[in-house]
Every structure is written in structure tokens, then in C-alpha cells.
Automatic annotation (TrEMBL):
The keyword Transmembrane helix does not apply. This is Alanine racemase. Residues 307-401 form the D-serine dehydratase-like domain. Belongs to the DSD1 family. Keywords: Isomerase, Lyase. Gene3D superfamilies: Alanine racemase, D-serine dehydratase-like domain. It comes from Microbacterium horticulturae. GO terms for molecular function: alanine racemase activity. Its EC number is 5.1.1.1. It is an enzyme of class 5 (isomerase).
Length: 416
């Protein structure tokens, strides 16, 4: 059994950890948590995580995958938080997916033993580092390639490695992101991999999420067609696979239900999802597009819960109907929709009242424009959209035991 990733509870809290109470300065995370802190000690702005909701989401996804014989290697770049990666591993994840070789190095520094790089690695310096890591026989690693040039760059950088690197041929699509644009081009890449001693052909990969951003019939059909092409590629090149594990992988956090549908009858490979945002879900983009959104009509479908929220304080009320908050683009995500004002209170720890018809109309670096009459000094709870651009703004995020509690039971540290 793989040892758990080292948890950074010995990290010392400093003034660089925004939002953390002054009394925590100089304490380790473990020492601070032993004092039973409460959220109303923290400074604003904040992003707060809900422990009960995160546990529900991780368990829901793990159960759903297990029922369908799917594996999951959740995308760790969403949070870059080893403590949250460990929750996913403990729930049965095959490993963690990452987006850059630098993130792979970070994960290895915490003892991660099973990693997928959902990208190409072509930099000779980072490939030399990877070659040294391959000396660990317990390290499972798989990367992607989408061109002959990528294959050649990997072969050059991996000279002297103790074993070949498992690689997946990435199939793309017109208008998508990376990936060979046709099945024929992908087959040619696979053939080159099979003829390259430094690499082992280990399957097919791709990302369907860049092909659609809604759940209309046209969007779902585009995703389904692409995934069927992935399966066709898998069948075309399976005779080239070397001995060892084989993977067929797709599945961001929006269309993993379609991936499960198309992959259902595939044989000869681990069918692997890479969804990552589900650990906290959100109150915007994924709430609208996820098959497990709380608002979907089917009563018997699984449901994710929103497990992150922003908190900001009113610092100015310069005119009727306008309040300025102390959190902006440096604190909260905004690329997939502006924050949504949900409730206000006189202070953290005080009763919340719902905000009806309030909106955030604009954001600056350190301010958000709240269109509502909320007095100076009050705090506002914000629904947030897109976890992938929320966590990167914070070194430490407090975790409360549930959405209604002010008891802080953990601090999640990120490593972007």
C-alpha cells in the first residue's frame, strides 16, 4: 500500500498567509488548530471551505465511478493542495493528474506515487529530472504526446533513464486545444512511440471540455462524437501497446457522464476520468453545467454540494445602491463569472440574512462593486465560480466543519 502524502502541518504561519489571525503568527498549522480557532477571528477577504460538503463530494464521485467500473485520477491542478489530493486518494483514486512538469515535481516532493501529466513534456531540463525520478520502481507516471516532434523531444531528454516512460497519444479536435487533429495523425504518433525505446505506448488521452461550454444537445453531441473517436483510436493502435497498464482517459468536471456512457463497453484499458473541480464544486460555471448540479431535475441523480465561498467586508458605501467590498480579482475568481452575493451579516459569527437581487457588477484588483445597500463594516458571503482560478490566489484556506459552523477544523495549504 502506498504511503500517504506528507501533510504540511509543520508549516509555520506568517503574515504572508492572508486572512490568518494575528495570534497565529509563528505557530505551525497543527499548533494553531489545537487552539480550536473560529472563523470570526480571521481577517477579510477570505475563501472558506466546507468540510462536510467536500467529504460528500469526494464520496459521491468515488461511489459513482466504482459502480461503473471507472477509475479516476482527479486533476490536482484545481487545488494544488496535497491535503485535498490525499482525500481523493483515500477514496480510491488511482492517482493524481497534473498540468505541468513543475506541478509533478511539487507532488513528488510530498511523496505522490501515481501521477499523470495531462500535457506534453519537451523541456530537456525537466525531462532529465523525470529520468532520475524513474529510478524509483514504485513511481507510476504517465504522460501525453500529440506529435512526432514531441516523441523526439522526449526521447532526447530521457537519455539514460532506467526505464521507459508510459505515454498516451492525445487525440484533439478542430477548434480544441492540443492533440493530434485526426485519427490518422494520431496513429502515426503511436507508431513512432512504439518504435522509441525511451517510451512505452500505454493508451489514448484527450480533453473534451474545450469543445463545449453548455449542456445543449449540440454540445453534448460534439463531446460524444469526439469521445467515440478516442475509442476508435484505441482500437486502431491497441496492437502496438507494450506490456503493462493501458489507459483510455478523458473527463473534465462538466461532461464526465458522457465519458462514462461512451467508455462503457471499452475493453483492454483502464477507463480513467480526470475530473478535479468536483472536490469543491462551485456556485457558477460548474453549478450550471455539471451533471451532478444540485438544481438538476432528476430526483435520483447524485448531487454535488458547493464547498467554497468567498467572504468580503464592506469598506465603502459611497452612494445609494452601491457598496465596495475589500476583496477583488486578487482574491476571488472572475474568469467564468463574477461572484454572486448570497447573504450579509453584521460580522463573521453573526446571523446571516439572504441578499435578494444583489449583484457584483464589476471587480478591480482589490475591490468588488456590490449593487445593494449594505452598511460599512458588514460582511458578505459570495458564491464563487471556477475552483481552478480560486485556489491559486490563496496560500492558506480555512476549513469549517460544515456550512453553518464557525469552527475551523483545518487549514488547507496550496502550492502553486
Amino acid at each position: 500500500m502506498t504511503a500517504p502524502m506528507a501533510q504540511p502541518v509543520d508549516a509555520v504561519l506568517t503574515a504572508r498567509d492572508k486572512g490568518v489571525p494575528e495570534r497565529a503568527m509563528g505557530m505551525t498549522i497543527a499548533e494553531f488548530l489545537a487552539t480550536q480557532p473560529r472563523l470570526d477571528e480571521f481577517w477579510t477577504p477570505l475563501i472558506v471551505l466546507d468540510d462536510a460538503a467536500m467529504r460528500h463530494n469526494v464520496e459521491t464521485m468515488a461511489s459513482w465511478c466504482a459502480q461503473r467500473g471507472l477509475a479516476i485520477m482527479p486533476h490536482g491542478k484545481t487545488t494544488m493542495a496535497p491535503a485535498l489530493w490525499q482525500r481523493q486518494i483515500d477514496a480510491g483514486a488511482l492517482g493524481i493528474t497534473l498540468a505541468t512538469i513543475g506541478q509533478v515535481r511539487t507532488a513528488r516532493s510530498f511523496g505522490a506515487a501515481s501521477l499523470q501529466l495531462a500535457n506534453a513534456a519537451v523541456d530537456e531540463r525537466s525531462l532529465r529530472w523525470l529520468a532520475s525520478e524513474l529510478a524509483d520502481p514504485d513511481f507510476r507516471f504517465v504522460s501525453w504526446v500529440d506529435s512526432v516532434e514531441t516523441v523526439e523531444a522526449m526521447a532526447h531528454g530521457l537519455r539514460g533513464a532506467s526505464r521507459p516512460v508510459d505515454v498516451l497519444v492525445e487525440l484533439g479536435a478542430d477548434g480544441g486545444r492540443t492533440g493530434a487533429r485526426t485519427i490518422e495523425a494520431a496513429v502515426a504518433v503511436a507508431e513512432r512511440v512504439a518504435a522509441t525505446p525511451a517510451l512505452r505506448l500505454a493508451g489514448v488521452a484527450g480533453y473534451e471540455g474545450s469543445l463545449a461550454h453548455e449542456r445543449t444537445d449540440a454540445a453534448l453531441n460534439a463531446v460524444r462524437t469526439y469521445l467515440q473517436q478516442q475509442v476508435e483510436l484505441h482500437e486502431r493502435i491497441r496492437h502496438l501497446y507494450g506490456p503493462g497498464d493501458v489507459y483510455l482517459t478523458a473527463g473534465g468536471s462538466a461532461y464526465f457522464d458522457v465519458v462514462a456512457e461512451v467508455y462503457a463497453d471499452v475493453t483492454g484499458a483502464h477507463r480513467v476520468l480526470r475530473s478535479g473541480a468536483y472536490v469543491v464544486h462551485d456556485d457558477g460555471f460548474y453549478r450550471q453545467i455539471s451533471p451532478f448540479d444540485e438544481g438538476r431535475a432528476s430526483d435520483d441523480a447524485p448531487r454535488f454540494r458547493t464547498a467554497m465561498r468567498g467572504v468580503a467586508r464592506v469598506v465603502s458605501h459611497p452612494e445609494s445602491g452601491l457598496a465596495l467590498l475589500d476583496g477583488g480579482k486578487r482574491d476571488f475568481p472572475y474568469d467564468e463569472g463574477l461572484p454572486i452575493p448570497r447573504a450579509a451579516a453584521s460580522d463573521l459569527g453573526a446571523p446571516w440574512r439572504l441578499l435578494d437581487d444583489a449583484t457584483i457588477s464589476a471587480m478591480n484588483d482589490q475591490h468588488s462593486y456590490l449593487r445593494a445597500d449594505v452598511p460599512v463594516g458588514a460582511v458578505v458571503a459570495l458564491g464563487l465560480s471556477h475552483p481552478c482560478t480560486a485556489f491559486d490566489k490563496w496560500r492558506v484556506l480555512p476549513v469549517v466543519d460544515d456550512g453553518e459552523s464557525g469552527r475551523v477544523i483545518d487549514l488547507v495549504r496550496t502550492y502553486f
